[in-house]
Design goal:
The protein has 457 residues and is an alpha/beta fold. It has helices spanning 75-81, 101-114, 130-140, 155-165, 190-207, 228-232, 331-344, 370-382, 408-417, 444-450, and strands at residues 7-11, 17-18, 34-39, 90-95, 121-125, 147-151, 169-173, 211-215, 235-241, 247-255, 263-269, 272-275, 294-301, 304-316, 324-327, 352-358, 390-392, 395-396, 402-403, 422-425, 437-440. Helices cover 24% and strands 25% of the residues.
Length: 457
Amino acid sequence: MVKKASSSFRCAECGLEVAKWVGRCPECQAWGTIEERGESRPPIARVAAGAPSAPARPIAHVDIESSRAAETGVSELDRVLGGGLVPGAVVLLAGEPGVGKSTLLLEVAHRWAERAKAAPALYVTGEESAGQVRLRAERTGNVHERMYLAAESDLGAILGHVDDVKPGLLIVDSVQTMSSPQVDNAPGGVTQVRAVTAGLVALAKERGLPIVLVGHVTKDGSVAGPRVLEHLVDVVLHFEGDRHSTLRLVRGVKNRFGAADEIGCFELRDDGIVGVPDPSGLFLNRHAEAVPGTSVTVTVEGKRPLLGEVQALVGRSTLNQPRRAVSGLDSSRVSMVLAVLEKRGRIQLGDKDIYTATVGGMKVTEPAVDLAVALAVSSAFTDTALSPRLVAIGEVGLAGEVRRITGVGRRLAEAVRLGFTHALVPPDAGPMPEGIQALEVGDLAGALHAVKYVPVG
């Protein structure tokens, strides 16, 4: 009797192997990613020793000069990358369509080409024709003789262009449009994306060539394609921005060569994209007079403190279920703050419509904004304006206590630089900078009482 060959099934998203096909991966919960792998092979019990490609050396003797980061010329991007592009590094820049990824990378290619000693930059596009990219480059002023442009969607053709041009920087826009001749799947599929990325990573490591890949995102904002894509590359950046705002943020998610929590701020204009080294003013709405329902806080993005304004509007509801609308804030934390404000602050909000938002398209999710949200809602409820020179920093707990947060001194130093004179902070916040009067508040009721003694005028 001939034994029937057995097949194995593997998830293309997380690599889990299962005995039979299922529609949903039991490990990563992704749908339609289980693929048949053919006849299963028993694991190898023993591996024979082979000749190493290079002898092992003490780590102190390894040369690092050839691996120094080279600046891109775009200071805000270099800040997120940790100083620039490391030779052989593969960077994945992901973002929604139309947010400005291609515009930013054209600026990077132009700045790179302007450097006299650097090798030329090669920009490969698989989504547009070469003429369309040239039109955008003309509009943004990013045309240079040492910028090379190719419209290709085949991995083999890209390798041929690299051999011809011998670039110092390769930009691929985008990895989802590229295909490898060794894989039969359609471009953009899980197998194709993985194969193309693996080929480009091998090219980068072999030649010491920094490569920037453009990636698409899904509806929930995560990188499209297999999860292993983020593991293959060295750096993962998310390009974020509101369609109705000119502000753009490049946020580091993974970085093998620097901090993974830095952000870079840009402003998208008709003639291109420019870095914003001091973005705090973009998130503040300067009023001629104090306005009820507004409160200023200081959030930290990476190592950068940013001042932001929280606005609230409270009105009588005509619905059985009062409306709660949130923009730029964490809706679950706002709901929690409202519940604590009603219970511990003795403010009746159950029959009120409440709207909360940030200014300038800023997105704040850290708990340090809780106190500012509570003060803005209380100010809107009582129709009493807070001092325009007051900042509020602190996390609010369910018992109404104001909890300590990190970096209070650094946050207040930024507030002093922008002209703020008073601050509400948690207890035992540490040394305070000169030029600001810090009021320590232990609970939410104490914070609501303390703001009455901060002069509005």
